[in-house]
Amino acid sequence: MKTLVSMLATIVATSIGQAHASIIQFDISGLDSIGPDVLFAIDFIDGDGPSNTVNVSNINTDGTAGPVTLFGGASGTVGGYLLEDTVFYTRLLLKYSNATQLSLRFDTTNNAPMHGMFADMLSLYLLNVSSGLPAIFTDEPLGTNALMSWTASGLNRGDLLVYGPMSPIQVTWSSAYHYDSNPIPEPSALPLLAIGLIGLLATKSLRKER
Amino acid sequence: MTSCILRILAIVLSIVTTPWVLSAPQPVNQVEVKRSGFLYNRQTDTFDTIVTVRNTSTVPLAAPMKLVLESVKPVSVSLYNIYGKTALGKPYVEVPLPGFVLDPGKSATVPVRFVNLGKTVTAATFSVQAERLDPDATARLEIVARMNAENGGNTVGSGFAVKLDGVTRATTDAQGRARVVTPLGVSEITVSSPPNYYGAAQVIGLTAGETRNVDVELGDSGEFGAESMLRMDRLQHLMLPRNIPLVVLRFFQYEKIVASDLVELVELRDPAGGPPMDITGLFTIRSDGSLAANSTAFFAAIGNLNGKKLLFAQVLDKQGVPHLREIPFYVSQRTVLGKVSAPPSNPGLPLGGIPIQVSVLNTDIAFETESAVDGTFPLPLLPSGILLIKAETTSGGIYYTGRGTAVISGNVRVDLKMRGPTDVTNNVPPITTSPL
Q1: Which CATH number describes the domain made up of B229-332?
Q2: Within the 107-166 window of chain A, which residues sit less than 8 Å (CB to CB) from chain B?
Q3: Pick from B5, B16, B48: which is nearest to A197 by CB?
Q4: Is the domain covering B336-435 a CATH 2.60.40.1120 domain?
Q5: Rg (Cα) of chain A, in Å, rounded?
Q6: Does B135-220 carry CATH code 3.40.50.1820?
Q7: Which residues contact B145 (CB under 8 A, 6 or more apart)?
Q8: pLDDT tens digits, B227-280
Q9: What is the ipTM of this complex?
Q10: Which of A15, A45, A197 is the closest to B37 by Cβ?
Q11: Which chain B residues touch A48 with a CB distance below 8 Å?
C-alpha cells in the first residue's frame, strides 16, 4: 500500500508543471496600409475534451473601436472578452477605424485533449471588412491565413505558432508568451486524479487501523 | 480494491507517458495517426486540421497512402479535399509522402478539410491504407530514362515523374535515373514530364530480391498537365453559392497550393457539348498564387444559372509547368429551410439527431445532414431543381420514414413528415412546402 501511495505521489510531483495557464501577447502595426477600417477575428474551436477558456484583455489601439460581434461561447464587454469552448465554434469579431496599431493579451487555460480527440485551438485573423475574407495572405500551412495560432496541448504553455506574410507587406505582427513574474501553476487533470486516489487510499488505511 | 486502483494507475501512466498519441496504432497498417486542432478556413468555409501519420512498422510504406475517414460525427460532416472513396465507400485523402515512401519511424502530414453545414465536428476516426514494401515480396528497379532519337537521345534531366502502374513512385535525378523498390506484381513503368514528354516500358516476372535495369525511352506525346487538382473556394457538394464575393480557383499539387504565374485559359464548357466560353479575362492571379474573379462578372458571364456547369482552367506555375483541369459545379441560390416533423400517429416522436439524405434529382448533388432537437436541419444554398429528401428513425420498435420531393424554384420552407405505418395508411402527406 505504501508503495502505491508513493507512486501516486510521484505522479503528482512529476505532473505539476505539465499544464500551465498561458499568457500570450499579440502586437500588430501598419494597419493603416490595409484601409481605414480593419476587422480582427479571433476563433476558438473546441476539440472536445476537457474545457478550456481564453480571456481577451489589455486591448490597446490608437484606432476607434467599432461594433463587436460575439458568436458561440463568446461573451464580454469592451474591457475584455471571454471565449469558452461550450460550443464547437466560438468567434469574436473586433472592428476598428483609423487604427495603425493594436495589441492585446490572451489568458488561456491549457488542458490537454482527451485520448483520440482534437485539441482546442485559438487563432487570430485580419479580415477585409466588406468581404469578411482574410485581408492578408500568410504562410499558415492550412491556407487559412491565420496570423497566429495556439493549441491547448496540455503540456508546458501549449503550442504557439506565429505565421508570416506570403509576400512583403507593411503590416507586421508578433506574438509571444508573456511570462508572469508570479506564476501560479495550474494542476492538470492527472495530478488531481492522483490526489483523489491518494485521499481514497488514505481513508481506507485509516479505517483499517481503526 | 488495490487491483482496481492499479488498473486505474496503469491507465493514468499510459496517458502520462504518451500524451501526443491521440489515436491508437492501426492494427492493419501499423501506423499512428495524430491530428491537430481545427482552424476555420474562411475561403473554403471548412474546418481544417493537419493529420500526421507515422509508420510504426518495420517495413517502408509506399505511395499512394490513403488516409481514410472511417467515421465522423455528426453525419453531416464530409471531406472537402476528398480524393476518392475506398472499396467500402469510405472517403479518403491522399497523404503526400516525401520520396513517395514512408520509411519505418518516419512521419508524413496531410491537411484534412471538413465541410459541415452545422459548423461542428465532434469526433473523427481515421485509418490508413498503403502498400507495404516487404523485403521478401519486392524487387528493385534501376530505371534510366532517355529521350528518343528525334529528341536528341540524351538522358532526361531531373524531376521527371516515374510511375509504376500509374502511381508516382519516384522522380529522376540529374542523370535521368531513379531507383525504386517495387512489389513483384508491377507491370508498367512510365516516365513523364509535362507538357509533352512521355515514355513507357513493360516489366514481367520480377522475383523477390531481384534488381532489374529498365530503360525507358521518351518522346513527344502531346500536351498534358502536371498531376494537380483544381479546387474552387466555397464549392461544397458541387454547389457554388451565388452570394460569394469572389470566385477563387486554386491548383493543388500534393496538397500544397500551386503558385500560378500565368493564366493561359479559363473557359466555361457546356456539358452538353456546346461551344465553350472564354472567360480568361475575368481572372487575375493573387499573391498567394490563386486565381480570382469578381463574382458579379463571373455569374453574368454564365448567364443561365440553372444546370450543370464545367469550368476549365489552364495556368503555368512559376517553374513554367502547365496545370490544366476541369471542375464541374452548379450555382446555388435558393434558401431552403428544412424541418422534419412528428406524424399524427406519434406527436411526441423525438426529432433530434435524425440523419437526413438530400439530393437534387438529375444532378450529381447528394449529401447528408442531421436534424436538431426541434427537427430543423441545416441546408446550404441550393440550386433550382427537384429536391429529394429521405430520413428514417425508430421509436418504440416502429419505423418512421420521411421521403418526399419538393420543387425548388424560389426560397422555400420544407416540412418532411416522419410517417409511421398508420400515417401512410391514413394518407398523411409526406412533405409540404411553403414560400419563405
Answers
A1: 2.60.40.1220
A2: 112-113, 115-121, 123, 125, 127, 130-134, 137, 140-146, 149, 151-155, 166
A3: B5
A4: yes
A5: 21
A6: no
A7: B155, B156, B160, B162, B172, B176, B177, B178, B191, B199, B215, B216, B217, B218
A8: 999 999 989 889 999 999 899 999 999 888 899 999 999 999 999 999 999 999
A9: 0.80
A10: A45
A11: 122-123
